[in-house]
Amino acid sequence: MRHTILLIGLLIPAVAGVTGCAGGSDESEAARRASTDSGIERIVAHVNGVPVPDARLERLVDAELLRRGGGMPDAEELARIRREALQLAINGELMVQAARGAGIAVDDEEIEAQIAVSRSQFADDGAYADYLASAGSNPQALRDEAERRLLMRRYAESVTDGLVVDERRAREIYDAERDRSGGGEQVRAAQIVVPVRPDATPEERAAARRRIDEARDALAAGEAFDAVARRLSQSPLAEQGGDMGWIGRGRLLPDLERVVFATPVGETSDVFETPHGFDIVRVTDRRVAPRPSYEAVKTGLLMVLAREQKDETLRKRIAELRDEATIVIDDPALEPRKGDRTIDDRQR
């Protein structure tokens, strides 16, 4: 069963001027500095005549580098990431244009709420203003990007609104898994979770990564898993040391289930990412138990299928927008190449 990270979060760029990536490329920093010093905004593409600025592309590049959790790629890999990020920036611009064409609008209160999330990462207004200035941003650019985020989210919701999951498909999946795996394998596991929203800014993602890395380092230093979970996990299970109890297959998101069932008893996983954030799990026991009934797992299956259906519907709509659009890539180095994949493809 295919499961994809919600495309919305990958298409929505970070709030302008707040990158938060500790390892941004020399190339991207040089481009930004050159653009700022000259006072001319560098344009990397046009979508139906609307320019796509390099700054928007670089924010997506920074977000992808941050998602990888450290270490700079070589020049060839970085070039590929930039090409793929441009395709996501183009998709985002198409969604904004489609939203406006459909009469979708957002009000000032919603925009201010988005900006407040970014502002909350700084100690005071002075620190925030200094950071924006150093990043070559300004309040108006900040508002423009916050509005874009909201327009893309609203458009995605309009495209996927009213979708109904076929319950027969959930039953088919349950029956196929039952026939494939036979008995009901279960594991007893505990979890440390640091959630990340799909539309999180690079600062929010960086803060989450630092927190989960702190948990990993504490475990490596010998601190008990339950103690680290109580101190650093941001899951409702934190108060009970992250204990998830006995878990059977089909009860977790696929990205989480794969790690849980692949981790040997008594072992702790490395940091890994799911559609909801960063995780570490520890498996304490394993058994074969009676397989749960369809009714017991139906709700979870329907939720996963609904997410996949929304992903696929939005993906098809964006493909239609691309077919109808005039897209010009101004920088030859960013032209897509055979074998390139968009960032969302790598999450399938």
Description of the molecule:
The protein starts with 6 loop residues before the first helix and ends in a 19-residue tail after the last strand. 53% of the residues lie in helices and 13% in strands. The N terminus and C terminus are likely disordered. The protein is α+β, with helices and mostly antiparallel strands. It has twelve helices and seven strands. The strands form two sheets. A four-stranded antiparallel beta sheet has the order 4-3-6-5. Strands 2-1-7 form a three-stranded antiparallel beta sheet. It is globular and about 65 Å long. The chain has two domains: 196 residues, Porin chaperone SurA, peptide-binding domain (Triger factor/SurA peptide-binding fold, Orthogonal Bundle), CATH 1.10.4030; 108 residues, Chitinase A, domain 3 (Roll), CATH 3.10.50. The longest helix is centred in the C-terminal third of the chain and has 31 residues.
What is the CATH topology assignment of the largest domain? Triger factor/SurA peptide-binding fold
Distance linking N and C termini: 10 Å
**Roughly how many Å is the radius of gyration?**
22 Å
The CATH architecture name of the largest domain reads Orthogonal Bundle
SSE class: alpha+beta
Instruction: Label the overall shape.
Output: globular
Q: What fraction of residues sit in β-strands?
A: 5-15%
Tell how many strands the DSSP assignment holds. 7
CATH superfamily name of the largest domain?
Porin chaperone SurA, peptide-binding domain
CATH class of the largest domain: Mainly Alpha
Largest sheet: spatial strand order: 4-3-6-5
The overall pLDDT average reads 82
What is the helix content?
Answer: 40-55%
Note poorly predicted spans.
1-38, 343-348
Query: How many strands, what sense, and barrel or not for the largest sheet?
Result: 4 strands, antiparallel
Total helices: the number is 12
The tally of domains stands at 2
| N-to-C order of helices and strands | HHEEHHHHHHEHHEHEEHE
